[in-house]
Fold this sequence. Notes:
Blueprint: H1 13-27, E1 46-51, E2 62-64, E3 77-82, E4 91-99, H2 102-111, E5 120-123, H3 125-129, E6 131-133, E7 136-139, E8 155-168, H4 170-179, E9 186-190, H5 191-195, H6 203-211, H7 229-245
Parallel strand pairs: 4-8, 8-9
Antiparallel strand pairs: 1-3, 2-5, 3-4, 5-8, 6-7
Amino acid sequence: MDESQYSPGLRGPAVHTSLDDLVRRRLRQWPQRPPGTAESAKQPGTWLRARPGEAHTVCQPFLKLPGASRLRTLPDGLWLHFSPDPAEPYADILCIEACSSLQNLLDKRSRFAASTNSLLAVCPLVWLLGPVQPGDPTPRWKLMRVVRREPEDALVLPVRDIRVLYGLKGRHYDGFARTQMPQAHEYFCPMDALTAERGDENPAMRALIARASAAANFMHLPAPDPVPAPARASAAARAAVTRASRAPHAAAPAQEEPAEP
């Protein structure tokens, strides 16, 4: 990939920053449900795109370890699947990370490596109360069955399942695919697939993310339990949001939160 197309005449950190910005601008056009992810009994809750937010969004969800007030993980892309049951709260996460160098890849892989520590997904109150997307004033919390009533504080959920998609520059991707083995939660794609216009409609990308779903580990899933009437209404509302989110919309450049070391 030609770095000069992102920041002509520049190299080093300026190029990396520009590349990250381009990836975030593209991911902002992706729908609320990860492309290629189908409805399944394994993940019957609500999917929402947490990062990157819309152009005006400043406060966005993040990942952290319990008790830690620093060293938050701020993925380039973050989708959250919220539990459908308030009695069993959890979140599944799909992260997308653009890696401009091999060192950057090693650093980001270490943040998601298998560990005995718990990982938490934190949804700030402002984000929960905000509209799900432009043109739809529905507050995000109303689409989450795990939330019973309007929240008064941030929502902090334990992470049940982690899947991470890493975007690598062409030469890095080829070398990694030839010589390295991914961990069970890791998936890889060329950076071009993340920087492309309408990349969420790419059949190869959709197939890759479909393989990253929890349902993909099973030969087949049992039939889902009957859905109560109120839940059916909520499901219809979420389906409407998903359809609306697939329509392209213009977004002004956003000011991203600075990544923490």
